[in-house]
Amino acid sequence: MITVLKKGTSQAQIDHLISWLRSRNLDVHISHGENYTVLGLIGNTGNVDMELLGSLDIVESVKRVTEPFKQCNRQFQPEDTVITVGKAKIGGGNFAMIAGPCSVETEEQIIEVAEAVKAAGADFLRGGAFKPRTSPYDFQGLGAEGIRLLLEAKKATGLPIVTEIMNINALDLFADVDVIQVGARNMQNFDLLKELGKTNKPILLKRGLANTLKEFLMSAEYIMSEGNQQVILCERGIRTFDTYARNTLDLTAVPMLHELSHLPVIVDPSHATGKIRLIPPMAMAAVACGADGVMVEVHNDPIHALCDGAQSLKPEQFADLAKRMRIIREAIV
Ligand code: PEP
Ligand code: MN
């Protein structure tokens, strides 16, 4: 349920109403807009008489959020969520570039790529240490050693790092990771989502291969309902009947998610397309349709990459793309 307060309501009046709502065993999420304050009520809202609440002098309106996703709902919080990590910000008019290899392979590789993407203007370094591979015979990632190497690259460049978690038992290894990624295959691993909801780290949640936007937002809700409000949604392509590209990039998801939710929305054109030549046009299209960021795979030696070489840009290709994305971004904001 949401309660919109009238313009000019004093802080003392807001505090008074909040303590009354809390005495009804509700959690209250406060969202201050330019012209109004919205109180999002979480819990058993059956404890509150909507008529009574709506009749108070300071209350403009009381509404039930009819969608099953509540805390990530735009109605619940009209302003965009902004995720801040060091100097980087995602959402609310801030655009971020996340770049790096599919997998961390060696110290030389990750540091070389980190330095190159930083020079091209990337805000975050990505790299998988725990890899969800389709085949058990393929490279599975370096695990804990991969995270150690990412932290070395962070030390060398100052770039915050993004890396995927597959099993909650590995959470301790993520203590110094800046953004924890939940991959497409784990989007509905609800136990994992709930545990990540108890952490204070931003979570980059990727859309599942065959999941609707409602299911995607319900997964964000799993994280938020445990207390962690810092969720970044990532569209990474879905399965359709076409097989030319690795997946079909659903760019409609960007404006649609922005309408439904206040969470930042980024796009991964690498996993969406699987082909180097398709990545720049789709990355630019993502910027043009309002994405709050892009995540692109970059490798210093794609031909010898242990994972996803066919969709990894070389550093100079990324630098060129970054320049073009900046131009498009400037043109649309
Ligand atoms: C990745 O980003 O490394 C990855 C495995 O992507 P996805 O979960 O989207 O397949
Ligand atoms: Mn990959």
Describe it:
- With 333 residues, this protein is an alpha/beta fold.
- The protein folds into 2 domains: 2-63, Phospho-2-dehydro-3-deoxyheptonate aldolase, domain 1 (Alpha-Beta Plaits, 2-Layer Sandwich); 83-332, Aldolase class I (TIM Barrel), CATH 3.20.20.
- The chain is built from 10 helices and 14 strands.
- It has helices at 11-23, 50-55, 107-119, 144-157, 190-196, 213-224, 253-260, 269-273, 279-288, 315-332, and strands at residues 2-5, 27-32, 37-42, 59-63, 83-85, 88-90, 96-100, 124-126, 161-164, 179-182, 203-206, 231-235, 265-267, 293-297.
- The strands form 3 sheets. It has an 8-stranded parallel barrel, surrounded by 5 helices. Strands 2-3-1-4 form a 4-stranded antiparallel sheet.
- Strand 7 (96-100), helix 3 and strand 8 (124-126) form a beta-alpha-beta unit.
- Helix 3 (107-119) packs parallel to helix 10.
- The longest helix has 18 residues, at 315-332.
- The mean pLDDT is 97.
- Bound molecules: phosphoenolpyruvate and manganese (II) ion.
